[in-house]
Amino acid sequence: MGQLDVLLVSEPGGHLLELWAMRGVADAQRRAWCSVDSPDVRSLLRGEPLWLAHGPTTRNLPNLLRNLRLAWRVVRREQARVILCTGSGVVVPFAWVGRVLGARVLYVESASRIDGPSLSCRLVGAAAHRRYVQWPDLAGRVRHAEFRGRLPWEHEVADHGTRGDRVLVTAGTSTKYAFDRLIACADQIGGAVVQHGVSAPAPPGARNVAYMTFDALCDEMRAARAVVTHAGLGSVLLALAHGHRPIVMARRPELGEGVDDHQVRFARRLAADGLVTVIEGPEAVVEAVRATDRSRLAAAASSGANSLLTALERDVRETV
Q1: Which of 6, 147, 258, 283 is in Cβ range 3.0-4.6 Å of 139 for a Cys bridge?
Q2: Domains of the chain
Q3: What are the φ and ψ backbone dihedral angles of 82, each rounded to 5 degrees?
Q4: What is the pLDDT of residues 165-204, one digit of tens each?
């Protein structure tokens, strides 16, 4: 095969949405993608050259070894010159194999990491030629990391479609942690569309769906008047990409809603930047929906967003 200029690597979900926002830095080059099979991967990367990695990757030694072999085969066969990656799991073997085989490795830390680096960011470590973080607070806590602004999530979908009157309530795709406190918001909102996952469905009057396909979720976001969601990276970024200022309730570990309090920190930081409206309980959702004003979202966009993409474009140009 001919030489591949850029290989883009991430897990599905929010990390894939972040990588998708970086795709423009490789528009003029021969590029391919690598991720784990999922509905959002099949939808977003339809028509793109794609290698499917072995999942699940979390604490899974057999799949780590399989993905090491896959990384060696892909990077060597494609002669990849740049590996652009973000997130966790599959990026670690691809970053280290890329470094060994002479590729330039660029790692962008997830926007959900505000005051401490992820395990993957630490594991990529010396393999990465450059590491970028998306919050200034984190730059001084990750050795040799640079802050050049954040990704422009708010502008990913140009055509937001025709808004309806209904409200979308989504608990994300977790198959482990219920979030009944969020689903209770539907009690306060008539005719909501509720994607409840492993949580108990909303009472009659709401349209309940356990899980939606990625395309169906995008359709609902385009049509929704407002989006009420947990503070998961993927759900928040997808709402922003569809022109919403999402109404966000963070999962709290002390209530058994998540593994740690990273959603609390993430939600507060986005609220400080004017990107989300944070509520602490379902009783606040009606007023939050009334106050939703998507026209203010563009004004709240970070002035540093383009700087990160410019830095990545420079990194790619220096290599290819």
Answers
A1: 147
A2: 6-151+303-319 (3.40.50.2000), 167-300 (3.40.50.2000)
A3: -130, 135
A4: 889 999 998 888 999 999 999 999 988 999 999 999 998 8
